[in-house]
Automatic annotation (TrEMBL):
Residues 528-564 form the Zinc finger Sec23/Sec24-type domain. Residues 1067-1140 form the Gelsolin-like domain. The gene is Sec24b. Keywords: Cytoplasm, Cytoplasmic vesicle, Endoplasmic reticulum, ER-Golgi transport, Membrane, Metal-binding, Protein transport, Transport, Zinc. Residues 601-840 form the Sec23/Sec24 trunk domain. It comes from the Eukaryota. GO terms for molecular function: SNARE binding; zinc ion binding. Residues 322-335 have a biased composition (Acidic residues). This is SC24B protein.
Length: 1194
């Protein structure tokens, strides 16, 4: 009995190695061991992972879809209509877990095979908090001190990759039927003991093929039926004996760049490329394996078109978190008991260090652009500039009155100590007060009002579309998480998978877990209360059975309340655990104790890798980068241990010795790029504070050092290899600035773009990487807690599809500046300068991990974003930053008939730039419904569209752009057809949608016309790939502006309603349709596209507006290239600049401003964003509706 198990020999190189172990020749050489082992070595020599990894396959049934509205031969669908399949027992389309660097085939036989994704496993960079006051205004209590660790060399970790399988945004194996061990309950989101151990990294996988006996309708996202793959090659990693000298320094010269230095001994570095099989090619063999109790077969994952045959050379990752992933009770967030304390002595009352901001603000912050003013504008999130940190005082807790607790549903009892055992208000009590959740039994809500799309043309609201409010009672609604941090595509969760299938809508979450908050309760406590079974953090939606017991809202286990939790330091009262901040706020941050660390938290380490070839010098970016660093050097997040280093490269790689005591920086050149090495490993990363003067000297000299260079080649790959070796002992952030196609050494690339095919309406090729070098490097970096951020400043094709892998798989971020030139394109230069200021000074978190938990019966099967999946449900984020977003797809494994509420919780554990381990927790609660009407009533159309955008990017890479476009259209067809089949009095001549989905066709049409997916229009390949990368990593609020821009009329802002923000008067003009019919020759219009602002001026625009706002006497005198508005002492100028500044403040990247006239060549791009109008290659909005209606009626 039990799940099917097959076997796989565990790859060698994952345990501790014998003392005389030597490094095999690999993709690139290992990092040499540093100094002799210190006393800390004992912590790392043990292998935390046994030699076997057990991952039993499981039988997962896919329920058939109940409705059959569309012709199965003529319409392809997004959601599964296949008959039930069981893994290991029946035939069917496959999709399983991929190995950390294996690209797998996708079959072209079904139109929509499962989503494999090159744009998914990129890691999101972690971000750290900036430091907080240790005292509250009302009480002073001992706080857990933030230990300051001396700058010590980190010893090498025992070789063996602690990080395991890399899953991209693809279906992950479902864990619901794994047998739990020890304290784990059998719930779908739990991770079995075996899976939290080492997951082997396999690169050479042979795929099975399973044919389907019947024609099936495929989808963007196929239900997981599992696939198996046989790992053929074994992976060997090891350390280098530090006693053996490897290389000698090429040159050591004062500071002027000499000629090429002498080369060191070389070893050719292979990129490990293999030919790409066609999409229709069949996998090579079927698995034939025997069962074994010790060994298990690693599942293969549909991923792309390449098969990697090189093993990762990364040693075991460094992490402050408890990387003991197999530990039953703590998983990613610690190695302590749920109710244990930091001291075994007498109980210590919980300390609340810097309870910043009190309760989470009830008012939801902006989800698109302008919104009506809150009643108290000063407290609005929009009133704070983007990136505003945490307040020095604690506004939410300055008042004497604590947060008002939720009253019990039983009016006969009062929350007093004497009434125990009385149930505290929680999910059980509050859900009982909801009555019938079914909306069908009450008056029809506005969200279900039928809308005739072909007749009601003006469906766009005058202000931004708000997130739907879950159908909960007022008490739960106030406690719920902000939709800006945690959002679900369906705010009414279907009770069964069959009901979800009928609705034809995707179920998923969109996360912005580390965003900047103006109010955040930060809790320092010797006890972090968690469920002993599923490890959920205590939150506002748990139930208190009595004073000493609480019931988990995810797995329903009853837990004891620790003694310390009985005391509330805010009210200085005892015996009211339900009034604690952890139970009053759905977003909290815990400062973790030393029990949550395996080593001292890593210092903030920053390495800048700069292209100094002739192309780079000509572009002039070095001046901007060095100037920005000089201005913000003291603002880099960190503490006294912060370290910094610089590497430059052209056809050789240059290092800079900045060790304290030198009179000037020393350049060291390594010309043997085929066998790159570190000339002086101990002096290339220096303490920022000790060597600040040398660093400033270098930054002042760099822009002119290479002025006369004639080097045209770019050895990016060897420079990245050197950067990886330099950062491996500590981890940190690598910032890469690249201006052209890498042309020398490992990772060299060739141009794959055909300019004649930019307008192709057929096949768009080369959306995936040309080599796996950058992906392997990123996986190695992720294992060493290092993220790689890429700044691409190029006027020519640079193969971003390949280069982006270095950021996507290491939790980095990507910045792209096409046609960059400091003097010829001043708008881009200004944008780079502003982006760098934000980039260098924003919060950053290091060595982070994130896990998402959900109510028993729900399971997560696909992740989207920039990250690395360390285990089946644990995302590894070498860095995390406040601008990174994530998305996940979910399924309903077990019926939710026993509960009326579903809850989701995400926990992000990271090291702040100040060296603290912190855990940020968000909890979301949503009602469970059992009728199709309720599901549609709770649809969040923006969240649905953003999730579909992520899925379509995966589909474009794994299959084709045409398939992704067709599937997006079918998503609209399916959902509206399903709705119309259940609605009464719907004629075939009508295209009806519920009010909640009335914008669905419009947003999908906008998506089809976006750079990532448009066809028939000239689109540079790098531009298209960058748009796809943005869709995979942007939070919803910014992604929606990218998909559907906002258009405002701005020549009459004086007459518009206003809000007051920080003593500024900000107009709030209404939104306009994205159609030329709204543009008038007498007006001026502002289009907000997220990363760019267009101001379109009509020929007959009022001269007063042109004079006051643009600073020119008339229309004719306005120049063609105008990128800034002058400061004119006029009311209309002040209002216009105030409005644009307010829009700019709400986003991380600085948008470029462009003034458009009729004669301006840029007007073509402006009109391309008018998505409701027809183009040569695309429908108008009305034609698109007619096309949908036609497909539904087939």
């Amino acid at each position: 009995s039990g799940p099917v198990q097959t076997r796989m020999p565990f790859p060698s190189g994952y345990g501790s190695h014998p003392p005389n172990y030597s490094v095999p020749s690999g993709h690139y050489s290992q990092v040499p061991s540093k100094a002799a082992a210190s006393h800390l070595d004992n912590q790392y020599t043990a292998s935390y992972y046994p030699n076997y990894y057990s991952a039993p396959a499981q039988h997962v049934m896919t329920p058939p879809v109940g409705t059959n509205v569309l012709n199965t031969q003529e319409s392809q669908h997004l959601y599964n209509k296949n008959p039930p399949h069981a893994v290991g027992s029946a035939e069917g389309p496959l999709q399983g877990a991929i190995s950390s660097a294996s690209y797998l085939h996708t079959s072209a036989q079904p139109s929509y095979s499962a989503f494999g994704d090159h744009y998914s496993t990129s890691v999101s960079s972690p971000v750290a908090s900036q430091g907080f006051p240790l005292n509250s205004d009302h009480y002073t209590m001992p706080a857990v001190s933030s230990a300051v660790y001396p700058p010590i060399p980190y010893p090498p970790v025992a070789a063996g990759s602690v990080y395991g399988q890399a899953f991209t945004s693809q279906s992950l194996p479902t864990l619901g039927q794994f047998k739990e061990t020890n304290a784990f309950s059998s719930q779908s989101t739990s991770v079995p003991h075996s899976l939290q151990q080492q997951v082997p990294v396999g690169y050479n996988t042979t795929l099975p093929t399973i044919s389907s006996a019947q024609a099936v309708q495929d989808n963007l996202c196929r239900s997981l039926t599992g696939s198996v793959a046989k790992v053929n090659n074994q992976i060997n990693t090891g350390g280098v004996d530090s006693s053996q000298p490897l290389h000698s320094v090429s040159q050591s010269i004062p500071f002027t760049k000499p000629g090429a230095g002498t080369s060191a001994s070389s070893a050719v570095i292979s990129s490990g490329r293999t030919p790409a099989p066609s999409l229709s090619s069949q996998p090579q063999s079927s698995p034939s394996v025997t069962q074994s109790p010790e060994l298990a077969l690693q599942e293969g994952m549909q991923y792309g078109g390449y098969i990697n045959n090189q093993a990762s050379s990364a040693p075991a990752p460094l992490s402050s978190s408890s990387d003991d992933e197999e530990e039953d009770e703590e998983d990613e967030e610690a190695a302590i008991d749920s109710s244990s304390t930091t001291s075994s002595a007498s109980p210590v009352l919980n300390n609340y260090d810097a309870l910043e901001g009190g309760g989470y603000p009830e008012a939801r912050s902006v989800t698109n652009s302008p919104v009506p003013p809150p009643s108290v504008p000063q407290t609005s999130k929009a009133s704070k500039p983007f990136g505003y940190g945490y307040p020095a005082l604690q506004p939410g807790y300055q008042n004497a009155t604590p947060p008002t607790p939720v009253q019990p549903s039983n009016p006969g009892h009062h929350p007093g100590f004497q009434h125990y055992p009385q149930q505290y208000p929680g999910v059980n009590q509050l859900s009982s007060s909801l009555g019938g959740l079914s909306l069908q039994h009450s008056q029809q809500p506005e969200s279900l009002r039928p809308v005739n799309l072909t007749q009601d043309r003006n469906i766009l609201p005058v202000s931004s579309v708000p997130a739907p409010v879950p159908n909960l009672n007022s008490d739960l609604r106030k406690l719920n998480c902000s939709p800006d941090s945690f959002r679900c595509t369906l705010t009414n969760i279907p009770q069964t998978q069959a009901l979800l299938n009928k609705a034809k809508l995707p179920l998923g979450l969109l996360l912005h877990p580390f965003r900047d908050l103006t109010q955040l309760p930060v809790i320092t406590s010797s006890t972090i209360v968690r469920c002993r079974s599923c490890r959920t953090y205590i939150n506002p939606f748990v139930s208190f059975i009595d004073q000493r017991r609480w019931k988990c809202n995810l797995c329903y286990r009853v837990n004891d309340v620790p003694e310390e939790f009985m005391y509330n330091p805010l009210t200085r009262s005892y015996g009211e655990p339900h009034k604690r901040p952890e139970v009053q706020n759905s977003t909290v941050e815990f400062i973790a104790s030393s029990d949550y660390m395996l080593r001292p938290p890593q210092p903030a380490v920053y390495l800048f890798v700069l292209d100094v070839s002739h192309n780079a010098v000509e572009a002039g970016y070095l001046t901007i980068v060095c100037q920005s660093l000089l201005e913000n050097l003291d603002k880099l997040p960190g503490d006294s241990r912060t370290r910094i280093g610089f590497i430059t490269f052209d056809s050789t790689v240059h290092f800079y010795n900045l060790q304290e005591g030198l009179s000037q920086p020393q350049m060291l050149i390594v010309s043997d790029i085929d066998d790159i090495f570190l000339p002086t490993p101990d002096s290339l990363l220096v303490n920022l504070h000790e060597s600040k003067e040398l660093i400033k000297d270098l930054l002042n000299a760099l822009p002119t050092m290479f002025t006369n260079t004639r080097e045209t080649h770019s050895a990016l790959g060897p420079a990245l290899q050197a950067a990886f070796k330099l950062m491996s002992p500590t981890g940190g952030r690598i910032s890469v600035f690249q201006t052209q196609l890498p042309s020398l050494g490992a990772g060299l690339l060739h141009s794959r773009e055909d300019p004649n095919q930019r307008s192709s309406t057929k096949v768009v090729q080369h959306l995936g990487p040309a080599t796996d070098f950058y992906k392997k490097l990123a996986l190695d970096c992720s294992g060493q807690q290092t993220a790689v951020d890429l700044f691409l400043l190029s006027s020519q094709y640079s193969d971003l599809a390949s280069l982006a892998c270095m950021s996507k798989y290491s939790a980095g971020c990507i910045y792209y500046y096409p046609s960059f030139h400091r003097s010829h394109n001043p708008a881009q230069a200004e944008k780079l300068q502003k982006d760098l200021k934000r980039y260098l000074t924003r919060k950053i978190g290091f060595e982070a991990v994130m896990r998402i938990r959900c109510t028993k019966g729900l399971s997560i099967h696909t992740f989207h974003g920039n990250f690395f999946v360390r285990s089946t449900d644990l995302l590894s984020l070498a860095n995390v930053n406040p601008d990174a977003g994530f998305a996940v797809q979910m399924s309903i494994e077990e019926s939710l008939t026993d509960t009326s509420l579903a809850c989701f919780q995400t926990a992000l554990l990271y090291t702040s730039s100040k060296g603290e381990r912190r855990i940020r927790v968000h909890t979301l609660c949503l009602p469970v419904v059992n009728s199709l009407a309720d599901v549609y009533a709770g649809a969040d159309v923006q969240a649905v569209v953003c999730l579909l955008a992520n899925m379509a990017v995966d589909r474009s890479v794994s299959s084709s752009l045409a398939d992704a476009r067709d599937a997006l259209v079918n998503a609209v067809v399916d959902s509206l057809a399903a709705y119309m089949s259940t609605a009464s009095n719907v004629q075939q001549s009508m295209l009806m949608a519920p009010n909640s989905l009335k914008l669905f066709p419009l947003y999908i049409l906008a998506l089809l016309k976006q750079k990532a997916f448009r066809t028939g229009m000239s689109t540079r390949l790098d531009d298209r790939v960058y748009a796809m990368c943005q869709m995979k990593s942007q939070p919803l609020v910014h992604l929606m502006k990218m998909i559907h821009p906002n258009l405002y009329r701005i020549d009459k802002l004086i007459d518009e309603s206003t809000i007051h923000v920080n003593d500024r008067v900000v107009p709030q003009p209404p939104l306009q349709k994205l159609s030329a019919e709204k543009l008038t020759r007498e007006g001026a219009f502002l289009m907000d596209c997220g990363s760019i602002f267009y101001i379109w001026i009509g020929k007959n625009c009022d001269n007063n507006f042109i004079k006051d706002v643009l600073g020119y006497p008339n229309y004719a005198s306005v120049p063609q290239k105008m990128t800034q508005l002058p400061e004119v002492d006029a009311l209309s100028s002040e209002r216009t600049r105030s409005f644009i500044s307010w829009l700019r403040d709400s986003r991380p990247l600085s948008p470029v401003l462009q003034v458009i006239k009729d004669e301006n060549p840029a007007k073509t791009e402006f009109f391309q964003h008018l998505i409701e109008d027809r183009t040569e290659a695309a429908f108008s909005y009305y034609e698109f509706l007619l096309n949908i209606q036609q497909q539904i009626c087939k």
